[in-house]
Every structure is written in C-alpha cells, then in structure tokens.
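ok new one. same drill as before - structure tokens go in, u give me an amino acid for every spot. 670 of them this time. try not to just spam alanines like last time pls lmao
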C-alpha cells in the first residue's frame, strides 16, 4: 500500500477499549516490537502500520500512540502526529515533554502560515579572551561564524585569529602573515579573508587556516589600501574591503583583482569619513557604516549613492550584520548595539549592556539568530539570543536507536531551535544521557554516517516540457557533476513526468546515469511531490553522506503536482531525516520560490545552471556541509537479566544557556 493512503487510514481507525487477555498481550507486544524494529530502520510506513495494530488491540495504551505519532513526525505528516500525540496526552501519557513537543509543532504550523515573529535580543553570557592564564584573543575586532558554526575572532592586539568551537573552546590560532587583524569575512568555498590594519594587506586562508595569498599594500592608488577594516564576501566570492584610511570602498574578485571602487573623504552624500564596515542586502544593495560622520549610507550594487540611514540615531557605528528577516545589527561604539528594521524603519537599541559590553566593534550572528558582539575594551565577546528562544529553549529529538552491538548503544539525535533550524557544531560535552535515572558516565560523539567520506546521490530529473530546450545543457551539467565524484560514491537517477520511475539504479560510473537521465518523454505535467518523497526514502539505504539533487525549471504544470503528500510533508520528511536538497535550476519557473525554500530549509543549496558553473563543485559543497544530526555512542550497564525488556532513557542538551531534552526507549537485545 502506498505511504500516504496507509497513514491516512491509520489516523482515523479506532477500537473499543477492553482489558487485554493473555493472547492480546502477546499480540500487542509483537506488534509493538515490530513497529520499533521498522522505525529504527527508518521504514516509517511499516512502523506506523504495526504501531497502529498495537493501538487497535489496546486503544488506551498511550505508548503505541506516542510511537505512532513519532513515526508520522519522521515521515513528515505533522498533522497526523499532532492528532496522535494529543490523544496520548488526553490519555495521561507524555506529560510536560509531550506538551512541549505539541507546542513546538503547533508553532511550526503557525510559522509555515507566515505569522510574523519579532523579538528583542537579551544578553546570555560572554566569552573571555583570557582564560586560565591562556590568551584566546586580545582587543577583539571583527567576528564571523562559518558554515561549521565555528566562531572566528580577530584579535587586534594579540595578532591572531582565534578559531573557537560553538561552546567557545579554542580550536586553533591563525597567525601566518598577521600583525593587527581587524575583520574577517567567510568565503563561499569555506575559507576566509582577514584584513590587517597594520600591514595594509588582506589575506586569504583556506578552511584549514593555511594562507593562500595576499593583496593590497599601503598606498592611495586603486588596489592599494590604507588601514583596511571591514570586509564582506558576496555569494559569488567577491570581496568588498572598507579602505578606511582612504575613505573609500574597493571590490575585489575572489583572486584579489580590483573590480569596483567608490567613495572619497568628505561629509556629503556618497562621501565617507573613517568608514568601518559594510554589508550587502538580499537585494544586492550595499550599506556602509560611515563612522566618522555617525551615519550609515546606502548604495546600489555599482556603488551609486541611494540614501542616508540613521543620521541622529547612531553614535559610533562600526560592525554591521544582516539578521534574519532583513534586519540590520549595528555595533554602535560605547555600550550600544542597535537593530534597524527596514520593513517599518524602526531603530531598536539592545538594553542593559552596562557591565556587559563596553565598546562594541564587531557583530555577527549564526544561523540560529544567536548574536555575537566583540567588546574591544574588555577583551570579551558578548552573546545574545532572541527573547523568544531564551524561554522556549531547544527542540531535541531522538530519531533512532541502534543496539545490535549491545552493550554498545547508539542514539541518533537532532537539535533545533524554535524556528526549526538545526543547531550545528555541538560536542559530546553538550549532551547527557540517563538510563533509569542514572547518568551515563562517558559519551562519544560519532559521525552520523559510517562512511562520511563517501556520497550517496539521488538525481531527480524533471521531464516537464519546459526542460526539453535544456537537454544538452542538462547533459553537460550532469557530466560535470558525475566527473567530480570518486569511485567510492554512488548515484541513482529518478526521472519524473506524470509518473516516477528509477531510470538508473545505484551505480558508480558516469555513463549509465547520463543514459538513464535521457529516458522518458517530456510531458505537460511532472509530479514533483512523489519524486521528492521517493528520492528521500531511497537515500536511507546507504550510510554515506546523502544528497538529493533536483534538476528542474521549477515549472511543473498544474496545481496538484505535490500530491498526494503536499509540499510541507516533503519538506518535513527531508529535513527530519537530514537529507539536504540541492536544486539545479534551468530558468525561473512558477514554483521557483517554493523550490528555493525546499533547498534552504533542508540545509541544501540552489545553483543556477545557466549563469554559473559552481554546480560542478557540488561534491565539495556536500562534503563541507556540517552534519545536522548527532550520533551518541556509549556502553550501557544494563544487566543481562534485562535482555528482551524495554529500557527507558533520557537525553539532555545544554548549549549557551539553552536546554532541551527527550525521552525514549529501546529493547535490550536477547
């Protein structure tokens, strides 16, 4: 039976509660164990079927409903999960933990209906630049957060860039070529640029911290610099440099070639006096902090002046960062951080910074809206969170348990904030596990995938008629991607028009996938929903890094192309199971915005096949992507007498003052 009809039948089935006989108790146990088995193998359809059978035998036993709801949740059917969990709660099961899960899902349902959410930032804690007689950073200036959630801090006085893990622990110092590092900009290739105020140079480092090249040098001519400060890297890898001493902005290619220059010293519109930083908006406009003139200035992408912002509202504007929703965070000198919202032109100051931030210079935020502000005077980095996240804490989900190597037990987890965004970069120190109320003394954090150096790729090839003119371009792009894979990777091709079929089973060569992609007719409608749902499920069979790659114009024809699942179910299914969706666009069809959302919210990426060759580097992108699930491994002390029994456990996560927990169980192998 297909997944959706079965799950819909399960949600409406019911039985009359009766005391269990001995035979019914045996049947309930058998069905429950079977559901447990299939759930942990990620066959949620079969798991839901068996949990439903157990529920049918004992409708008032909330355990079966809890697991049935969890199966629906992992399969992407949030409404069905809500129904089962609400009934379980009414039956007295789950307690506050289940209430928390229900509140999270209700919030997600509201968020997906685009209910606007705004929230002020509140102070959480700070990272000191001098800990236990060891120097992390002195006089911190610029700050950046990379794709691995690592914190990079420019120590202006210490002469190094400190690379910290998400908990603030030092990973390494980068000192090569640096004297007075001022700012940092992360590049699309995972590396980063650093401006050096003392040497008038900008240095490029790779993701490992090795210096690759430098450019600039003191002077007043184009390409020369005088006290470079703020940096910003756009999505194409081009670098904007605030040439503070020369009161101008220069734009360089990713190799350091000058592309654009604008601004001069002065007080008029389009002129600067000691500018400090800049950012680019989603619309491609440039905002520069004109520090000496106590204002911001807005320019188009070519450097043409558009408007003055914040005149009379800012004291010493320096570091800038674009937050979610297009809001702008401004490090505004002494004890001030200001947030500007362009949607309503409001300016909001983060209150109560006395004793926490003395002189704000750099500002950055991670993917979860955690805000970091460098304090140049007190040698600290202040951390802030949106008020709504501080009090609702973290959503921790135990997604599966493997106990076949008992007494070794492995639990797979995902940790997300209230907005549904994954928390990346956690370590074993962030977690605690309790079995029967006793804390497990030693935890190990293992790679989520056994073969993390290999890629399992499912290519979804859209056979809608709008793709027909791009057949040769599709073949070129696919060939480039396939040539970038190595012999240990594996590829499957799924074609879809008004049906979905596997045109090439998993294989490790180039020609067969290309041949498979050419099969099938182009039609006026392509059922994208079934294709995405199948592609996600087919990736479960490999313990490699997964990648779902969709080749499309995003013009599928008709209004029912996401049926029978629906767009949100496909999105949840991929996101809950850590399957990133990479979209290769051939044009901008009617559903381009929805397809972009699918990529963004599954931690994938969108490539424009017609204007850029970056898609050829997709394997590198996949390998650089931080894993969004965690695998905790330990040896349990469960005695031999418990073999065959159900053993409950609780997992807690603590991160930057936030907290989350989940409770589950596993059967001790016989």
């Amino acid at each position: 039976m297909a997944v959706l009809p079965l799950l819909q039948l399960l949600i409406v089935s019911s039985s009359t509660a009766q005391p269990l006989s001995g035979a019914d108790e045996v049947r309930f146990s058998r069905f429950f164990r079977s559901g447990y088995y299939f759930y942990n193998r990620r066959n949620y359809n079969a798991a839901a079927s068996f949990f439903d059978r157990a529920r049918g035998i004992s409708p008032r036993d909330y355990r079966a409903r809890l697991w049935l709801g969890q199966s629906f949740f992992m399969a992407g059917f949030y409404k069905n999960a809500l129904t089962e969990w609400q009934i379980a709660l009414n039956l007295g099961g789950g307690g506050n933990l289940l209430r928390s899960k229900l509140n999270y899902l209700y919030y997600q349902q509201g968020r997906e209906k685009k209910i606007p959410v705004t929230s002020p930032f509140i102070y959480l804690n700070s990272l000191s630049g001098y800990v236990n007689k060891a120097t992390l950073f002195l006089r911190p200036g610029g700050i950046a957060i990379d794709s691995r959630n690592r914190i990079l801090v420019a120590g202006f006085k210490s002469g190094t860039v400190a690379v910290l893990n998400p908990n603030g622990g030092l990973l390494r110092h980068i000192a090569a070529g640096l004297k007075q590092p001022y700012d940092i900009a992360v590049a699309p290739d995972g590396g980063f640029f650093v401006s050096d105020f003392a040497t008038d140079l900008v240095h490029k480092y790779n993701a490992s911290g090795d210096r690759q090249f430098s450019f600039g040098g003191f002077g007043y001519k184009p390409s020369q610099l005088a006290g470079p400060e703020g940096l910003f890297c756009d999505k194409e890898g081009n670098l904007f440099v605030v040439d503070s001493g020369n009161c101008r902005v220069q734009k360089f290619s990713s190799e350091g070639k000058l592309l654009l220059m604008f601004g001069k010293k002065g007080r008029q519109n389009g002129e600067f006096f000691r500018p400090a930083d800049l950012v680019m908006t989603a619309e491609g406009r440039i905002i520069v902090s004109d520090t000496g003139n106590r204002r911001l200035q807005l320019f188009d992408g070519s450097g043409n002046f558009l408007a003055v912002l914040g005149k009379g509202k800012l004291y010493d504007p320096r570091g800038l960062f674009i937050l979610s929703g297009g809001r702008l965070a401004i490090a505004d000198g002494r004890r001030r951080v200001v947030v500007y919202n362009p949607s309503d032109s409001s300016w909001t100051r983060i209150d109560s910074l006395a004793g926490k931030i003395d002189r704000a210079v750099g500002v950055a935020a991670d993917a979860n809206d955690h805000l970091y502000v460098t304090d140049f005077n007190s040698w600290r980095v202040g951390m802030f969170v949106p008020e709504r996240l501080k009090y609702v804490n973290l959503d921790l989900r135990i997604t599966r348990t493997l106990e076949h190597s008992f007494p070794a037990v492995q639990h797979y987890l995902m940790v997300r904030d209230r907005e549904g965004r994954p928390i990346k970069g956690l370590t074993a120190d962030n977690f605690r596990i309790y079995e029967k109320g006793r804390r497990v003394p030693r935890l190990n954090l293992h790679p989520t995938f056994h073969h993390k150096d290999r890629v399992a790729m499912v290519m979804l090839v859209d056979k809608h008629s709008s793709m027909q003119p791009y057949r040769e371009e599709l073949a070129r792009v696919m060939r480039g991607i396939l040539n970038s894979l190595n012999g240990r990777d594996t590829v499957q091709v799924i074609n879809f028009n008004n049906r979905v079929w596997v045109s090439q089973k998993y294989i490790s060569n180039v020609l067969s996938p290309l041949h498979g992609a050419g099969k099938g007719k182009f039609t006026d409608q392509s059922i994208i929903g079934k294709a995405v749902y199948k592609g996600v499920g087919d990736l479960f069979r490999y313990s490699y890094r997964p990648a779902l790659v969709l080749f499309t114009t995003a013009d599928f024809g008709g209004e029912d192309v996401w049926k029978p699942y629906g767009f949100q179910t496909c999105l949840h299914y991929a996101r809950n199971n850590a399957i990133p969706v990479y979209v290769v666009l051939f044009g901008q069809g009617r559903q381009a915005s929805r397809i972009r959302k699918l990529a963004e919210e599954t931690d994938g990426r969108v490539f424009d096949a017609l204007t850029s060759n970056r898609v050829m580097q997709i394997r590198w992108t996949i390998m650089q992507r931080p894993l969004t699930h965690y695998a905790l491994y330990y040896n349990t002390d469960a005695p031999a007498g418990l073999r065959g029994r159900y053993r409950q456990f609780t997992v807690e996560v603590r991160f930057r003052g936030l907290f989350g927990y989940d409770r589950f169980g596993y059967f001790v192998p016989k």
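The mean pLDDT is 88. and btw The two ends are 32 Å apart (CA to CA).
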